[in-house]
Structures are given as structure tokens and as C-alpha cells.
Automatic annotation (TrEMBL):
UniProt source species: Cinchona calisaya
Keyword Repeat: yes
Database matches in Gene3D superfamilies: Tetratricopeptide repeat domain (1.25.40.10)
The keyword Nuclease appears for this protein: no
Keywords: Repeat
InterPro entries reported for this sequence: E_motif, PPR_At4g14850-like_plant, PPR_rpt, TPR-like_helical_dom_sf
PPR repeat locations: 148-182, 249-283, 345-379, 417-451
Pfam annotation, one family: E_motif
Taxonomic lineage: Eukaryota, Viridiplantae, Streptophyta, Embryophyta, Tracheophyta
NCBIfam families membership: PPR
Protein name in the entry: Pentatricopeptide repeat-containing protein
Length: 546
DNA sequence: TTAGGGTTAG
């Protein structure tokens, strides 16, 4: 026997933390049910195909609540639900972020015998994947008797969504071996997998396949631009853009702009930016270019565009704006932007904490972190953990730094990685706590955290400050082994030898650098000059990034 | 009816 009760869903997606069962205990006047009983009665055509079309319209307009509520009514009053009913409903289940709804819909599909049909089964692969349930998504795929190209594409996307690009590539190789049909969707996913895997040759092969098939669609070209620019081949990416015969769209331009920024082609990014109507994603990339290039002049102009075009409520874009001001040394402006972000996410909080930390305002950074905890709607992540530690380090707040190093683990279950250890080791070294530093280092190794070059550099620097010759030489050896071409490491080592009076080693090191062709670039500051008539105005833009 | 391309903190 099989008993199933579908429950109505009244609240929008973000409130779906409440279980469906809890929802039923709420009183009706607290809720907004777009499809109530009377409205359902008023729907003129109540045959199943009209109702299915209505479900599709609601979900296409992004109204998942109404889609689910209409489905609930249909379940009560219709006896002929079919596969066309469930495809929009499964989408709604995911949009409502409530896995219980998905399970209810899936159960009903099994009861009605539509779960084995190819289209709703593919929708199940997708729904479970979007819920984060890779196992259920894969099960749905392997339960299929016959799999069409859309089903294969859905499972490829599922693997990519779960950070398994190699699985996606392996599956594509299987598809080719079995001479299965593939489509532009398939090639897009495989290109994305190649990008994640940094698999240049494989990606080139897909590019060749696209050329042979003559499928230079804008979506595929965007995936190619993204692939090449992520692998440092920005000229190839620009060539794709130049030779594209299809109409270029915003997403393609955005991909090219972010690719130029990623490859430090800031002027090119700005030129492409000027070709399009501003959109939030392009502006975010452009602001990122200003941050990297310390170009507050352009950054301020983008801020103006944001205000004029009403992008100011976009959290992600505002985070980039905040970061731009902070990186250009304008901490007050960064703070003003932060205050105006109405829906602050973990990146907003972390960026501002880090901005205070970098500018030496450790106490303000800590106060802000406390505020973040009090507001209680955003949880810190490993980057927040690092920003707080770094803020303590920059301001010499060793006691607080120690407290937070353990608190983040105990209260939030965040596991420190090499970057966290490097930061804490640096802090302890500067404070002369060399024995605590070593016991921390040994504890880290015992926990199987592999020391990164940043860890060895922090250890070496601590040994220089504390004149610990033996352990300093040990750290130096490891550091140079790990990064033999990084000039900064040789400078650290040279400073270490100088501190312990080994001037012969300093000279030896310099000649080794010369012999190996390793040069340390000089430091500097950017000053932006603007000409107004015959007068110049200077803008101090902070430190450059070499 | 199902599947695809772009963005922020370290």
C-alpha cells in the first residue's frame, strides 16, 4: 500500500528552511497563497494539458511557489497527471530549495509510473544534482533503460556541478568510443571540464572538433574564450572573439572582459567594456581590474555608472566596489560602501574585515567580526578565518590571534589550512614565541597538513627574527626546494643570513641568483596624473601589484 | 516537457 499526502508550499525560496510540516501549522492570514481554492476554480480550462501549460508559464516566470501550489491543487482534483506535469514541478522543487518537496514529487511520479520516461527522468537527474545529491542524480541516470543525448548532457553537468571534471571527461570519452550522439551542450560541458582541469591539449582537441563540425555558436565561443583565458592564452581567446560570425551577446563580452582582467590586459578590458551597455557582471570584472591595477580614477567612474544605472543594490558588485576602494587605500570609502550594502553576504563581511586588517586597523576588524557574529545570519568561512588572523597579525594582536585560531575550529568547525598556519606562525614569530611556533608546526605536520611555501617562508622569517640558525637553515632548504624560481624566497634567505652575520652566504646567494637569472623586481607606487587645462592633478592610488 | 557560456573576498 502506498499513501502520499502532498503539502502546499506558501513561502518563497529563501524561507524554505522551515520544513513543510511546520508550514502547515501557520495560520492562513500569515501566508500568501497565489493559487487558493477559489482561484483554482476560476481557471477556465482545467484539462490536464492546459494546466500543464500553466505550470510551465509559472516556472518560466520564476514563480516556483505558485507552480507548486497549483500542482498541489492539481493533485487534489485531477486524476490524469502525466510526465508533462512533473518537469516544471521538479524545477520548482529545486527553486524552492526544499528537498522534501522533490522527494514528494518523485514519489508521486513512481506511483503514477511516469518516473521511467526519459524526459522526467532527465529532469530528476538535474533536480537531484542541483540539490547537491550527486548519488541520487547518478542513480537516476543509470536507472534509465535508454539514454538520449540530453540525459548524457545532464549527467555531465551534474559531475561538473559537483567538482568532478575528470569524471565528465571520462564519460565523454566513453560517449565517443560508443559513437553516441553529442551536441553543443556536450561540447560546452567538456570545455568547462578542460578549463577546470587546465587540460590545454584536450581543450584544443575540442576546439578542433568544433571547427570540423562548423558549430561556432556564440555559447561555444564563450566557452572557448573562457577556456583559453583561464589557461593564460588570452591572444587565442581574442582570436575566437574576432572571428566569431554569430551575433555577440553580453555573456560573451563579459567572458572576454574577465579573461582580459585575469591576464592583466586591463586596457583591453576597459576598451571592450566601452563597446557594451554596462551590466553588473562586466562592471564587477572591470572593478576587479581597477583593484589589481590600483586605478581609482576608473573605479570611481564605475561607481558613478553603478549609481546612474541602479546597480547599487547588487551585493556582488558592491563587494567588488568595496574591495576596489580598499585596495586603492581608500578605507573610508570602502566602509561607506559596506554600510550601504543591504544584503551583506560572507564576501561583504570578509572583504571589509580584511580591508581594516591590511590597513592596520586590527581592533576595527575584530569589532566588525563580532558584529557579523551578532547579526547571526551569515556564517564565517575559511577566508573570513584568514582575514581575522591576518588582521590580528598586522596589528600585533597576538593574544587575540591565538584565541581566534582555536575559536574558529571549535565554534565553526573550520579546519585551518596551510595559509592559516602560515599567518599564525608569522604572528608568533614576530612576538618571539618560537617554542609555541615549533609545537604548532609539528602539530600541523601530524595533522597531515602539508607545509606550503608560505609556511616555510613564515618559519624562516621567524627564525631570522629570533636568530634560530639551525631551524632557519632547515626551513630555508625546504623553501628553496619548493620554489626555486621565486626571487622573494632568495631575498628572505639573504635577510636571514645577514641577520646571523653570514655575509659570505649573502654574497654566494646573490651570485647564485645572477647565475640562475633570478631578479627581484623593484618596489614602487603608482601615482595617477590627470591633466585639467594646463594643470595636473595627482591621485595617490596605493601600491602596484607586480 | 529535460541539458550548455560570464562576476566579488585569500
Amino acid at each position: 500500500m502506498f499513501r502520499l499526502k502532498l503539502l502546499p508550499c506558501y513561502l518563497p525560496a529563501k524561507n524554505c528552511l522551515y520544513s513543510v510540516l511546520k508550514l502547515t501549522t501557520l495560520t492562513r492570514h500569515h501566508l500568501s497563497n497565489h493559487i487558493d481554492h477559489h482561484l483554482f476554480d476560476e481557471i477556465p480550462q482545467k484539462d490536464i494539458s492546459s494546466l500543464n501549460s500553466l505550470l510551465n508559464s509559472y516556472i518560466r516566470n520564476g514563480d516556483a511557489v505558485t507552480t507548486w501550489n497549483l500542482f498541489h491543487k492539481m493533485h487534489c482534483f485531477c486524476t490524469d497527471l502525466n510526465s508533462y506535469t512533473f518537469t516544471p514541478v521538479l524545477n520548482a522543487c529545486w527553486a524552492l530549495q526544499n528537498p522534501k518537496l522533490g522527494i514528494q514529487a518523485h514519489t508521486l511520479m513512481i506511483k503514477l509510473g511516469v518516473d521511467t520516461e526519459i524526459v522526467p527522468k532527465t529532469a530528476l537527474i538535474d533536480m537531484y544534482s542541483k540539490y547537491g545529491q550527486l548519488g541520487d542524480s547518478v542513480s537516476a541516470f543509470y536507472e534509465m533503460g535508454y539514454r538520449d543525448v540530453v540525459a548524457w548532457n545532464a549527467i555531465l553537468s551534474s559531475y561538473l556541478r559537483h567538482g568532478l571534471p575528470q569524471k565528465a571527461v571520462d564519460l565523454f570519452v566513453d560517449m565517443r568510443k560508443e559513437r553516441l550522439e553529442f551536441s553543443e551542450f556536450t561540447l560546452c560541458s567538456v570545455l568547462k571540464a578542460c578549463t577546470s582541469l587546465k587540460a590545454y591539449q584536450k581543450g584544443k582537441q575540442i576546439h578542433a572538433l568544433i571547427l570540423v563540425l562548423g558549430r561556432d555558436l556564440v555559447v561555444l565561443s564563450t566557452a572557448l574564450i573562457n577556456f583559453y583565458s583561464n589557461l593564460g592564452q588570452i591572444d587565442e581567446a581574442v582570436e575566437i572573439y574576432r572571428t566569431l560570425s554569430w551575433r555577440k551577446d553580453d555573456i560573451m563580452y563579459n567572458s572576454l572582459i574577465s579573461g582580459c582582467v585575469r591576464n592583466k590586459r586591463y586596457d583591453a578590458a576597459m576598451s571592450i567594456m566601452s563597446l557594451i551597455r554596462p551590466n553588473a557582471v562586466a562592471l564587477t570584472s572591470a572593478l576587479s581590474a581597477c583593484s589589481e591595477n590600483s586605478d581609482i580614477w576608473i573605479g570611481k567612474q564605475i561607481h558613478g555608472v553603478m549609481i546612474r544605472q541602479e546597480f547599487i543594490h547588487d551585493t556582488q558588485l558592491s563587494n567588488a566596489l568595496l574591495d576596489m576602494y580598499a585596495k586603492c587605500g581608500k578605507i573610508r570609502e570602502a566602509s561607506l560602501v559596506f554600510d550601504k550594502i543591504s544584503r551583506k553576504d560572507v564576501v561583504s563581511w570578509t572583504s571589509m574585515i580584511d580591508a581594516y586588517g591590511v590597513h592596520g586597523h586590527g581592533a576595527k576588524a575584530i569589532d566588525l567580526f563580532k558584529r557579523m557574529e551578532e547579526e547571526n545570519n551569515v556564517l564565517p568561512n575559511p577566508v573570513t578565518f584568514l582575514a581575522v588572523l591576518s588582521a590580528c597579525g598586522h596589528s600585533g594582536l597576538v593574544e587575540l590571534g591565538r584565541e581566534y585560531f582555536y575559536m574558529f575550529q571549535e565554534k565553526y568547525g573550520l579546519v585551518p589550512g596551510p595559509a592559516h598556519y602560515a599567518c599564525f606562525i608569522d604572528m608568533l614569530g614576530r612576538a618571539g614565541q618560537i617554542e609555541e611556533l615549533w609545537s604548532l608546526f609539528l602539530g600541523m605536520v601530524e595533522k597531515d597538513v602539508k607545509p606550503s611555501s608560505a609556511v616555510w617562508a613564515a618559519v624562516l622569517n621567524s627564525c631570522r627574527i629570533n636568530l634560530d640558525v639551525e631551524r632557519g637553515e632547515f626551513a630555508a632548504k625546504r623553501l628553496i626546494q619548493l620554489e626555486p624560481d621565486n626571487p622573494g624566497n632568495y631575498v628572505s634567505l639573504s635577510n636571514f643570513y645577514a641577520a646571523i652575520g653570514r655575509w659570505d652566504s649573502v654574497d654566494e646567494l646573490r651570485s647564485i641568483m645572477k647565475k640562475r637569472g633570478i631578479f627581484k623586481g623593484e618596489g614602487g607606487s603608482w601615482v595617477t596624473m590627470h591633466k585639467f587645462g594646463d594643470k595636473f592633478q595627482c591621485e595617490n592610488s596605493g601600491a602596484p601589484s607586480f
